[in-house]
Amino acid sequence: MTPAVFGGFPEGRQRLIPVPSLFFRELLPAIDDLAELKVTLYAFWALNQKEGTFRCLRQAELAADALLLEGLRTQGTSPEQALREALDRAVARGTFLQASFDAAEGAQAVYFLNTPKGRAGVQAVERGEWRPDTEAVYQAADRPNVFRLYEENIGPLTPLIADTLRDAEETYPAGWIEEAVRIAVENNVRKWRYVQAILEDWRTRGRDEREDRGDSEKARRRYIEGKFADFIEH
After folding, report:
1. Which residue in 66, 62, 105 sits closest to 87, CA to CA?
2. Distance of CA 45 to the CA centre of its chain
3. CA-to-CA distance for 144 and 150, rounded, in angstroms?
4. Domain shared by 102 and 148, yes or no
């Protein structure tokens, strides 16, 4: 069977997905199952699109990804079975950590990467301190891209702005960009420099560690006072 021919990556900078170097030194040489390798690489991509206290993947959402399942299809094995076996292999290898929680539709399996934050997530689920369905879960396919966000909320694209937006996509998570644009719109400061200032502030100070999280009025003042005041037209 002739394999599908990849047309190559398009011109311009592409968004990069972080993969720990330890994956190439230890995991990649050890993985001897193609489905396990595909699911492991998919997890790096999918978890990079997540937000929230902890990042995890539900087995149900993996099974709902038609492209992933199509890539796992082999003769004599259904894609669903291949997915289950690949997840089991990744858990047995220690790449993934599995936890489960009770939902309305029954027990739901979730998978974390075996990192310090992932291990903390498993403990939080097991102790009943956190449930994956208590926070919104987003995927890249559900989000407008950065160019559409800019055109719909700030203004028309120019070649220079397009290059700037590509750089932002490579530097910041999609959720950060979307929220920063929303803050700009709410404060009626439709300038990319203002959005950029918010993103740089989050990268420096930590978006999830801000003292104003949960205090909407304090957060609003934060983005119209201080160093952000220069962007406001009075």
Report:
1. 62
2. 7
3. 10
4. no
Cα dihedral angle (221, 222, 228, 231), rounded to 10 degrees? -30
The distance in angstroms from the start CA to the end CA of the chain is 66
Q: CA torsion angle for 72, 78, 81, 82 (degrees, to 10)? A: -20
Strand pairing report for 57-58 and 106-113 = antiparallel
The tens digit of pLDDT for each residue in 49-92 reads: 777 778 899 888 899 888 899 899 888 889 999 999 999 999 99
DSSP 188: T
φ and ψ of 108, to 5 deg: -120, 130
Range(s) of the domain holding residue 155: 143-231
115-142 burial, b at 16+ Cβ within 10 Å, e below that, comes to eeebeebbeebeeeebebeeeebbeeee
Residue 191 lies in a domain: yes
- Report the distance separating Cα 122 and Cα 113, nearest Å: 10
Q: Are 137 and 52 in contact (CB under 8 A)?
A: yes
Q: Which of 145, 196, 201, 131 is nearest to 175 (CA)?
A: 145
